[in-house]
Design brief:
Purple Acid Phosphatase, chain A, domain 2; 2 domains; alpha+beta; flat; 7 helices; 5 strands; two-stranded antiparallel sheet
Length: 160
C-alpha cells in the first residue's frame, strides 16, 4: 500500500473489487513477497526474479471453486548442470555457491553507496561512521536483502 505504490492505485483497487478479482500479480521489485490487504481482501503477489538466486518461480493454481493456491518452486540448477555435462563448479554446486555470492553483491552495494556517496564528500552522516560501522551496516543490509530475494511463501488459499 505504501512502498512502490503505482499512480492511481486506489482506482486500480476499486476496479479489481468491482470485477470481483481477488488477486493482483506483479514482478517489478524482483523479490518474492505476498500479502493480503485486510481492508480490501485482495491478495497481492510480487514474484521474484528467475535470474536472481534462489532462481525460483511462482506457481498459481486456480480451482473451479474459485479458490487458489500460490507457492514457489526453485529451478534445480545443479541437476541441469549435471544433465548438460557442465564443468563449472559454481553451477554444479549452485546451492552452496549462490547464497554467499548474492550476499556479497548486496554487501558491496551497501558499502560502495556509503563509500562513494555525496554525503561523504560534504561531511554528512557516512563520514561520521567508523569503518567497522560501515561494514556492520553493509552486513545487515546484505542479510536482509538476501532473505527478501529468497523468500518462500507458504501456500495461500482463498475460498469464496
Amino acid at each position: 500500500m505504501d512502498d512502490c505504490t503505482i499512480e492511481h492505485s486506489s482506482e486500480l483497487i476499486d476496479m479489481l473489487e468491482s470485477e470481483n478479482i481477488p488477486l493482483f500479480l506483479s514482478g517489478h521489485l524482483h523479490v518474492q513477497h505476498f500479502m493480503q490487504n485486510n481492508d480490501i481482501g485482495i491478495y497481492e503477489i510480487v514474484t521474484s526474479s528467475l535470474s536472481t538466486p534462489p532462481c525460483q518461480y511462482g506457481v498459481l493454481e486456480y480451482m473451479e471453486n474459485e479458490s487458489f493456491s500460490y507457492y514457489t518452486k526453485q529451478v534445480d540448477i545443479e541437476k541441469w548442470a549435471r544433465k548438460h555435462q557442465m564443468t563449472d563448479e559454481n553451477l554444479l554446486n549452485f546451492n552452496t555457491y549462490s547464497p554467499p555470492s548474492l550476499n556479497r553483491i548486496f554487501y558491496n552495494q551497501a558499502y560502495d553507496a556509503m563509500k562513494n556517496s555525496r554525503e561523504e564528500e560534504t561531511g554528512d552522516i557516512f563520514v561520521q561512521l567508523t569503518e567497522t560501522e560501515k561494514q556492520q551496516m553493509s552486513r545487515v543490509y546484505a542479510d536482509i536483502n538476501s532473505a527478501c530475494y529468497g523468500a518462500r511463501p507458504t501456500r495461500l488459499w482463498r475460498r469464496r
